[in-house]
Amino acid sequence: CCCPLFVSQAERKRRQAWVVTLLSSFIMTVVGTWYFVRLWVSNGDILNPTDDIKLDHVDTAIARGISLFFLAYCVVDMVLAALFYNEEAGVAYEHHTLYIIIVGVLYKKKLPLLFAIGALEEFPTLLLSIYELMGDRRPRLSTGMMILTSRISYHLYVTYKCIAADVMNPGLFLVS
What we know:
The structure is a single chain. The chain is mainly α. It has helices at residues 9-16, 19-41, 57-84, 92-108, 112-118, 123-134, 140-164, 170-175. The chain contains eight helices and no strands. The model has no long low-confidence stretch (mean pLDDT 80). Keywords: Membrane, Transmembrane, Transmembrane helix. This is TLC domain-containing protein.
């Protein structure tokens, strides 16, 4: 079972902090996988659509929707942290605020596709949240290195494709 019944109140509270993250990272991973496949199959052309490779209304709507979903997740997670598990939040406030700014700028510049493609970077967070909910206290250093390595590797690939496609604002995408 994901959440054993017989745990201390402090342990239960710590795990509850990961429920919203689990749900969000699952949705982000599913959508991110879709856009990664599109990026791979189009050899990066999805980033700069032409008459041959067009984004349909569904792709555009999903990219916009996932951006708004993640903005809402960041706000909800910060509110829940402040109300129920502030001591467990760590750097979540700064992290989420930075993402709100980045995703907001991409959305305003009509580039939510860049964020949607990067949504696959939430896969390591999905794995981490599963481990946390199961009560598995894996070493933080190895977990952090796995997340960092996988995110940086994928991010470098997508950034390369953005630069190759001459997408507006690749510098912003580099820092996301």
